[in-house]
Amino acid sequence: MSHNLLNVPLRQTFQPPIRQALRSYINQKHPETHPDAFKWDISEWESQRKKATSMNVHEDTIALVLRRLAYLLTKLPPDIGLSFSYGQMFSPASPVEISNLHYERASTLLNLAILFCQLGTTEDRASQEGLKRAVLCFKRGAGTISYILSNVLPALQKSLQNAGVPIPTDLDEDFLRFLRGVMIAEAQESAWQKARLNGLSNGSIARLASKASKFYSDSLEFIDADSRLSVYVPEDVIAHLRCKSHHFAAVAQYRLSMDHGVSGKDRFARIQAAMDSASKGKASQEVFNDAKSLDDRINTELRTVSHANDLIYHEDVPPPSTVPPIPGVAVVEDDVLPQLSDPASVLGGARSETLIFGGLESWGIRRACDIFKNQRSNYIEDELAGMQHDSDLVAMSKLNALNLPAALDALSQPIGLPPSLLQQAGKVRSEDGPNKIMKMLEDAPMLANQCRNIIEDAFNGLDEEADYDEELRSAYAQHDRWTRPTSSEANGRLTQRAQTEQQLLARQAMSMRTGGFGSGCTAIDHSGRHPDARTAGARQRQETKVQARALQQLLEKLDDLKSARETILSRSRHLAQEDDIKPSVVRKANTFEAWSEIGPEVFDDIVNEGLAKYDKFRDQLEENASVQEEVLIKIEAQNERFLSSRKEDPTIKEREEKLKSLSKGFQAYIDIKRRLEEDIRFYNEKAVELNGFRIIVNEWCEERRASVRWLEMSLNEVPEHLLSSSGSQAVTSAKKKPEISGMAPEKWNPSLQPAKAETPTESETPTAPSTSPLVVPSIPNTNLGAAASIPSPFSGKWEQTPELTPEPRPKKEPKKKNKAKELA
Question: Do 229 and 175 contact (CB within 8 A), yes or no?
């Protein structure tokens, strides 16, 4: 800030890659033109932009800037893939980068307005000429911003909104109006200062100062109304402008109090009002000296008029709030540069070939042609083709509902079976259907029998362990430390699992059904050779033939209408290939001035005229659809007569019954094959699961044998080294227990001993057991649902089991029976 005026900072910019972006744009959008043809234009734009963004501003620079801005957007669209970066006015460290030529144009003009403002602050304010130039600079700065608001900002807002990009704060409409108000206020202030130098009356100077105060306060209203701007604009700038507003309000009241037409109590009230305003305008350091000088003069004058009123007038002084406002006089307004309001003056009548990109086709022309091509393509492919498709769909739906032309085809070609049945028969033969089903009928019971055998093995293992446990329990029945649970108590979960699996297998065996397959499968296999099938319908009544010929003629007429629609659509596409509105667009574009920005909307009338040429095809399709509707009504009526003539033909009914029978046979074949495949897959998967269950049962039996050996050793107090691999026989000899044939325990496994027992070595002797009752470790809680990962045993040929229901297990003859065995 200098000379008590706001020195608005210039927005810093950077040189964008103009050359690379333009060459890429020309290659993509103008393939008929080589980028080297515009080598001079690109270089000229780069040099002009560099001069326009420099700190030196003069008439030649302004002319170059406006020459580019007035003509560039007539040739190029807003977004050509070239990003422009500008630092924000009050946040230079946060530049905003946008790919938009309207953004470049608005930013360049805003910098031009700021440069005018900076020129105004540097003028000599002690001379009439300096103040005159300052007023002109501020007015032109405000005029440039007004030009941005009215001519550039709407296009920028629209293009950025379409691209989904927010507008920068520096180019926000309220912020631009704030800047314009500041520049108008500074122009008014310069005019007020010039009036002081010219020695105008106090009343005139007061009215100029009042308007300056109003301009400053009006500019601050845009900041106060927008919370974003109140945060963006620095506080010292806002305080400076508010201080200037109060300062000039005080100046206006003071000057008017000094006017010769004001005296007495009115003069006293004006001075008091000036004192109130002056007291509010001392916050800003930049206007401190002026405010201090004004305050001193007001105080001096206030003492003078107060003394005079006390000694001479003795009048009641009205409060300052009742003082009438001073009508301001505005001597400044927006001054738009002639180069902005009349771009043709800058072009100087030069031909377009001498301007940058003068030889490049306008983007508006190319865009208008592209819009026409897109709308024409949409009209043909969506509108016309859609009408054709709808008509075809109506005809096809009606014919399908009437079973046409299949009914006529069956009448003209009655020999053989329909293609669908022939396909079904071929599928059965290709799969060797009957043999495949018979093989599956043999395999399924075999697999079921194997699964039952696995369950039987599990039951046998549990029975043998139970027999062995009962004989040991009889031998040690009198021993008070025998706390081992019985087998029926210990194997409850295993027995329940085995019974569940056995019931599941029984239910699966009962679910296998094959009824109804034999006749259907055989019929579908031999249908192609059935004599009745070949000759059914060969004998036709004369009335049926007459009605069929009439129906066939109507169907042929329907086909002719469909062909006509295809021809109409083909003609429209052929016309589109030869149609081109570019000559008409170019002729209209030549009627505009060279500096005019021509958008595609200018050529809407030409585009609409070009599209109107295709309305005749729409009319033809509508007429075609109307004729087709009448033909379909006739086809429906004729089909009724045709069907009535066939109702009395016995061969037709006979053929229909046979075809239905063959179709049902094929469906039965598919259903039986599916169910048998599911049964075989079930038994294979169940076999893997049952094998895992059998392993669990065997491991459980081994654990029981291992635990009983330790229990016997504790009861008999036999040293461990006397236990051999046949430990059960050694214990039997020590107790003189009778040997149990067929139940010799297997070799002891140390990993199965109780968790708290220590494994003795060959040189150690086990300690004597305590007198407390022996606690036998419980059997580990094995996950009975998990199956061992072993190969399926059902890969070979199985032995056939005559029945699918589970057989009752034969009863054995041991002395004592296991609970699991009894439940089974």
Answer: yes
